[in-house]
Write a structure and sequence with these properties.
Helix 2 crosses helix 5, helix 3 crosses helix 4 and helix 10 packs parallel to helix 12. This protein has three domains: 135 residues, Phosphohistidine domain (Glucose Oxidase, domain 1, 3-Layer(bba) Sandwich); 109 residues, PtsI, HPr-binding domain (Enzyme I, Chain A, domain 2, Orthogonal Bundle), CATH 1.10.274.10; 323 residues, TIM Barrel, CATH 3.20.20. The protein is 48% helix and 13% strand. Strand 7 and strand 8 form a beta hairpin. It has an eight-stranded mixed sheet with strand order 1-8-7-3-4-5-6-2.
Length: 606
């Protein structure tokens, strides 16, 4: 396919107009250009309501607060009962604590007092309450008491969500698309993003593999992470220019700057539209080798997007977003409904469903998991947490098995963070137990291949023995890299070590892929590396033929495949493996891609 000559290289220049640009530099995590209005998310309340109630409005406002409080109480009781039934009473204790806070007489008395005496609205009164409790708790040196502030915040947020249909402070006065500016985009905030017309994302914290980056790439929107202190410089309503290639944020640019970047923005979308024209074509190299391009998804909208982008199936469905977005605990029937909808919407009805991957930066209070572990990414998370709650885990396995009826081999079950052979055998045992339970109840289920996500170095080293008990392997490069390099990918002090093109990473990946291919076991890479042109070429040279990536990257990778031969990829890999540093490999591979597919080389963020 012939592409227009879009001069993306100009994005790397700090001055498109000959003038000094006022900008901040961060980590480029999702390519492209965006111009939009800033929407800053500082706190539960960004702009507390300053309206003063009239005398005749006080009674109605009290009633509005009482209704919202009662609804919050119903939420907590419902969640407590479901967690008690599905997980256990100990895990449900957190909701008893929240119910106690909600019923606390001093809590209610303060809110009512601000409404009656100070004529504040209910949201403004809750804001005052949060401010007062924050000052109170921050004065204590008792760590346990300081942690209780999080519980108070949760209760206040729950009430506030019933006071307003959608908690989007300040947005009503904004026109058009927004650029989301946050400290760190949490998985639980993803659902709210879906209700906004977001053109770009800027975060103070994060890296190329943070959730903000993953979400931005899945939507094909520019994003920049690690811009320290940006929330102190930008306010809601400011005009922002995002250069997602160079990692620049320009604040309130002048007319010439805005005009120049808006032109680049239009050309970026034009290029994406052209690339999307290959959606119905097979991903095939110049020498006729077919490559499987799959999509990573979080929800039903992503599954539909995968089909529109030309994916051949879903290589990774992250089920944790179902739990994070659910008001309480999704039961078996709710999970079954969700999985069936995803399967029906997915290309060829091919879906790999990953079991719950909670922990690290994604937490669910009712599983007893908090951020208080010293090393959460190395702690009680993913499959380790699922083993701790076997009945909870069995419920998810049952729903996945039932969702596969009539889809033999198209639906696959994958478990995250498998470290040892014993863990994989335990998974197999639990799958058999779920099958026996379904047989006893007379419920239909399908035959589901069971695989592992390889993201722990110990599993990579012992992959030959692990292959005895798995039907397939999916390499989770995001976590594998940070564990291999002993560097938290979201810690700006050490995230520079998490480089996908570093020699040790490439050596481990080459070994795993070779071992799987020799054993004739299906192997896919579903980390963010899969959608990066430089990394893709090297993986192709290693013998990898199945890739799963953000849906937005599929058209550009498919176009890259059409410019390559396997022999070229193998030669590039051989030459790259002879280099000693990430920087040397990166420069070399980018240069080769620029020769093979000039437009696509500039979409790379490795």
């Amino acid at each position: 396919m012939q592409l227009t000559n879009w001069h993306l290289s100009s994005l790397c220049h700090e001055d498109l107009t000959g003038k000094l640009l006022v900008m901040r530099k961060g980590i480029a995590v999702s390519p492209g250009v965006a111009v939009g209005t800033a929407y800053c998310v500082h706190e539960i309340f960004v702009n507390p309501d300053t309206k003063r109630l009239e005398d005749g409005e006080v009674t109605a406002e009290l009633a509005r607060y009482e209704t919202a409080r009662d609804q919050a109480g119903e939420d907590l009781r419902s969640m407590r009962k479901k967690v008690e039934a599905q997980v256990g009473q100990e895990e449900a204790a957190i909701f008893r604590v929240h119910e106690t806070i909600l019923r606390d007489s001093a809590f209610t008395k303060k809110v009512r007092g601000w409404i009656v005496n100070d004529r504040l609205t209910a949201p403004a009164s809750l804001h005052e309450l949060l401010r007062e409790y924050t000052k109170l708790f921050e004065r204590t040196k008792d760590e346990y008491l300081r942690e209780r502030l999080n519980d108070v915040r949760d209760v206040i947020l729950r009430i506030s969500t019933h006071l307003t249909e959608v908690l989007k402070p300040g947005l009503t006065s904004l026109d058009g698309p927004v650029v989301d500016v946050v400290d760190e985009l949490l998985p639980s905030q993803v659902v709210a993003l879906g209700q906004l017309d977001v053109k770009g994302i800027v975060t103070q914290r994060g890296s190329q593999t943070s959730h903000a980056a993953i979400i931005a790439r899945s939507r094909g929107i520019p994003a920049i992470s690690g811009v320290r202190g940006i929330l102190r410089q930008v306010k809601t309503g400011d005009t922002l220019i995002l250069d997602g290639r160079a990692g620049h944020v320009i604040i309130n640019g002048d007319a010439e700057q805005l005009s120049a970047y808006r032109k680049l923005e239009r050309e970026f979308f034009h290029l994406k539209d052209q690339l999307a024209e290959n959606r119905d074509q097979l991903a095939m190299t110049l020498d006729g080798v077919e490559v499987e391009l799959l999509a990573n998804i979080n929800n039903l909208a992503d599954a539909k997007s995968a089909g529109a982008m030309g994916a051949q199936g879903i290589g990774l469905y992250r089920t944790e977003y179902l739990y994070l977005a659910h008001p309480d605990v999704p039961d078996e029937e709710e999970q079954l409904k969700d999985y069936r909808q995803i399967i029906d919407a997915s290309p060829e009805h091919q879906v790999t469903i990953r079991t719950l991957d909670i922990g690290g930066d994604k937490t669910i209070p009712y599983l007893g998991h908090t951020h208080q572990e010293a090393n959460p990414f190395l702690g009680w998370r993913s499959i380790r947490l699922s083993f701790e709650h076997p009945e909870f885990f069995i419920t998810q396995i049952r729903a996945i098995l039932r969702s596969s009826v009539g889809k033999a081999g198209q639906v696959r079950l994958m478990c995250p963070m498998i470290t040892t052979l014993e863990e994989m055998r335990r998974v197999r045992s639990m799958v058999r137990r779920a099958q026996r339970l379904l047989d006893a109840e007379g419920k239909e289920y399908g035959k589901v291949p069971v695989g592992m996500m390889l993201e722990v170095p110990a599993a990579a080293v012992s992959i030959d023995s692990m292959l005895e008990v798995v039907d397939f392997v999916s390499i989770g490069s995001n976590d594998l890299i940070q564990y291999l390099m002993a560097a938290d990918r979201d810690n700006p002090k050490v995230s520079h070590l998490c480089q996908p093109l570093s020699p040790p990473v490439l050596k481990v990946l080459a070994s795993v892929i070779q071992t799987c291919n020799e054993a004739k076991k299906s192997v896919t890479l579903c980390g963010e590396m899969a959608g990066m042109p430089s990394a893709f070429v090297l993986l192709l040279g290693m013998g990898l033929r199945s890739f799963s990536m953000s849906p937005a990257f599929i058209p550009s990778i498919k176009d890259l495949v059409s410019h390559l031969t396997i022999e070229q990829a193998e030669l590039i890999l051989k030459q790259a493996m002879g280099l000693r540093t990430h920087a040397h490999i990166r420069r070399f591979v980018r240069k080769r891609i620029a020769e093979i597919a000039p437009n696509l080389a500039l979409l790379d963020t490795t």
